[in-house]
Amino acid sequence: MIMASSSTDGQHTNEIKNLTPHKIVLPADLLKDIQDTEAKGCLDNDSSDGFFYIPNFISEAEEEHIISKIQSAPQPKWRTLHARSGEKIGRLQNWGGQVTKQALIAEQLPEFLTSFPPLLERIRETGAFQGSKHGEPNHCLMNEYEPGQGILPHEDGSAYFPTVATVSLGGHTLLDVYRYASQDAQSDASKPADSSAKAREQLPRFSILQEPRSLLITQGAAYKYFLHGIAEREIDEDKHLSTVTNGDMVADTSVRDTIRKAKEGGDSNSDHSLQRQLRYSLTLRDVERVAPKNLMAMMMGKQ
């Protein structure tokens, strides 16, 4: 068993101005029964729709700095999440303001996103948000995941421009990607608590390994047509790693080799697994509808 570290010489990836080389190749049969031409853009190498993976998007020093800022945030900034049973399932911090049904009640983003490291600038330069109102994210949700914690499959919804940028810190994870169930399969699918929502397939179609310091961009049709979640487990074993679709893009050679061996199968006595560690996830999005400043001032005055 190994731990993902993506150890580098301390430098981050050179400026990314073209996402095409970083597009994740998805399973060829992923959309065979879907007729929607927009969804099929996820399989087109030249389309801006899809999942894009960039390892070492930030340096080790930048990662350490961001983690220290997260950990030293005042207690009121933290929100603890609990399951219906009362069990703690994670913690989060909200940066950039409050997202309401009507608009974003904006707040200034912290310097560890805007100055050192200049995360927003680097993300803007990728072009991922060039079609959004602000051209870059204006909101960040930080989730803390201890080993064994995860999040149920979900979609990010219509409040945001259909692109999300996720930076991973500290430890790795596997992002499991699900499809919505077809009409014929609705009875066998996993149905959400909201009966008006669409059901999803029971098993993920594929997984994406996110290393520490990596950037994952989910864009366009990939944002609209798929759900994503993180399974609650402490160890990612062979059967989990065999579904990883970006193994050849992983920077850590030992992790890449572990994924390859898991896919090949072979010796059942061999340990092809990854131990999860404490992970922080920065989910950056553009909330295009922002409340006018006078309304924000009024709402702040009522607090």
TrEMBL record:
Gene3D superfamilies: Alpha-ketoglutarate-dependent dioxygenase AlkB-like (2.60.120.590). Its main location: nucleus. The keyword Kinase does not apply. It is found in: Nucleus. InterPro entries: AlkB-like (IPR027450), AlkB-like_sf (IPR037151), ALKBH6 (IPR032862), Oxoglu/Fe-dep_dioxygenase_dom (IPR005123). Residues 136-288 form the Fe2OG dioxygenase domain. Keywords: Dioxygenase, Iron, Metal-binding, Nucleus, Oxidoreductase. One of its GO terms (cellular component) is nucleus. One of its GO terms (molecular function) is dioxygenase activity. Belongs to the alkB family. This is Fe2OG dioxygenase domain-containing protein. It comes from Meira miltonrushii. The lineage of its organism: Eukaryota, Fungi, Dikarya, Basidiomycota, Ustilaginomycotina.
